[in-house]
UniProtKB/TrEMBL annotation:
Belongs to the 'GDSL' lipolytic enzyme family. One of its GO terms (molecular function) is hydrolase activity. It holds the Pfam family Lipase_GDSL. The keyword Chaperone does not apply. Keywords: Hydrolase, Lipid degradation, Lipid metabolism, Signal. GO terms for biological process: lipid catabolic process. The keyword Hydrolase applies. This is GDSL esterase/lipase 6. InterPro entries: GDSL, GDSL_Est/Lipase, Lipase_GDSL_AS, SGNH_hydro_sf, SGNH_plant_lipase-like. Residues 1-20 form the signal peptide.
Length: 364
């Protein structure tokens, strides 16, 4: 007999949680943390990871993912038990040339590496902003390639903002806003995203915080940044943004009847890895290196993108927190996903992804 748990949230949302996953699809929005290859299919985009040794650990060939294997979105799919999402541009190409009759029923990945929540971020690189990702999704809904009932039963994954904050410190640009005003402008765009995705049918929305961007090896590309410690000014902006994200998540069941949001505390999770690299996980060995990139070159491995001429690579990527100068290794992503999937309130709140996947929300 199935065990049924009834939870009241904000006195207005009645949710039944049935033990047995109820997620037919996942729709993914964001940047290189999630990108499954969209940039590869965008020939006008210069932000690429479609060359070796990207993808070498799991797929054994480049897929366009900016790591050596799977991302958080991939692991979430595997935990739920559905196939990995295709990049939107790959599915769109197959649909247009007739090799597939319709778009995938297990969801679609719209994420684009290098993109931000602000339209202007890295637009000279040809990336696809969150606003355009949302437009791509909306077009499929309006053209009835994606059923609104499927969207309501699905989980929306969102992670974006790292590139906006890194760009704020670009030595070749002059910020016109204060750090606080800049973060507010970012949060305004996220609020618009949540509003629109809800109107398109979304009911279960997972918003993930940024990690400690000021700790990535690529910080050495910026002038006057510390090498022996993280860049405090950058991480302060990240924490302010993350605080605002959680506020938006907390407002979802109040502002959007029939919807539910969770906030994934990725910043805290990664900082725990960094603070206790040998002891954070009793089931596996810890990290040998939480500062340097496994693949790259120069100080911290942060001066050169992995795979570019002159790069070096470590013997065991599983021992490294960072795969390249910006991105975590597959093992880091797996450990982050484990924390998001079954973690306690300090890792994800108000419930974890496993509980979110079990939820049956009332029809809207």
């Amino acid at each position: 007999m199935e065990k049924l748990l009834i939870i009241f949230l904000h006195s207005s949302l009645l949710i039944s949680v049935i033990y047995g996953y109820n997620v037919p699809a996942i729709f993914v929005f964001g940047d290189s943390i999630f990108d499954a290859g969209n940039n590869h299919y965008n020939k006008n985009c210069t932000a690429q990871a479609d060359f070796p040794p990207y993808g070498s650990t799991f797929f054994h060939h480049p897929t366009g993912r900016f790591t050596n294997g799977r991302t958080v979105a991939d692991f979430i799919c595997q935990f739920i038990g559905i196939p990995l999402q295709k990049p939107f541009l790959e599915a769109h190409l197959e649909f247009m040339n007739g090799t597939r009759k319709d778009y995938p029923s297990n969801g679609i990945n719209f994420a684009s590496a290098g993109s931000g929540v602000l339209r202007a971020t890295n637009q000279d690189s040809g990336v696809t902003s969150i606003q355009v990702q949302l437009q791509q999704f909306q077009a499929l809904v309006e053209q009835r390639h994606i059923d609104r009932k499927l969207i309501q039963q699905s989980i929306i994954l969102f992670e974006s903002g790292s590139n906006d904050i890194f760009a704020y410190f670009d030595p070749f640009g002059t910020p016109t806003l204060t750090p606080d005003a800049y973060v507010r402008s970012m949060l305004m765009e996220v609020g618009k995203f949540i509003d629109q995705i809800y109107k398109l049918g979304a009911s279960r929305i997972a918003i993930f915080s940024l990690g400690p961007v000021g700790c990535v090896p690529a910080r050495v590309l910026l002038p006057r940044t510390p090498v022996t410690k993280c860049y405090g000014k950058m991480n302060k902006m990240v924490k302010n943004y993350n605080m605002g994200l959680e506020g938006l998540v907390n407002g979802i069941p109040i502002k959007y009847p029939g919807a539910f949001g969770v906030f994934g505390e990725i910043y805290r999770t990664i900082q725990i890895f960094r603070a206790n690299p040998k002891r954070y996980d009793c089931d596996t060995a810890g990290f040998a290196d939480v500062n340097n990139a496994c693949c790259g070159d120069g100080t911290l491995g942060g001066f050169l993108q992995c795979g570019k001429e002159g790069y070096t690579i470590c013997k065991n990527p599983n021992e490294y927190l960072f795969w390249d100068f910006f991105h975590p290794s597959e093992r880091t992503y797996k450990l982050i996903t484990k924390a998001l999937w079954a973690g306690r309130h300090t890792r994800i709140r108000p419930v974890n992804l496993k509980t979110l996947a079990n939820m049956t929300l009332p029809p809207r």
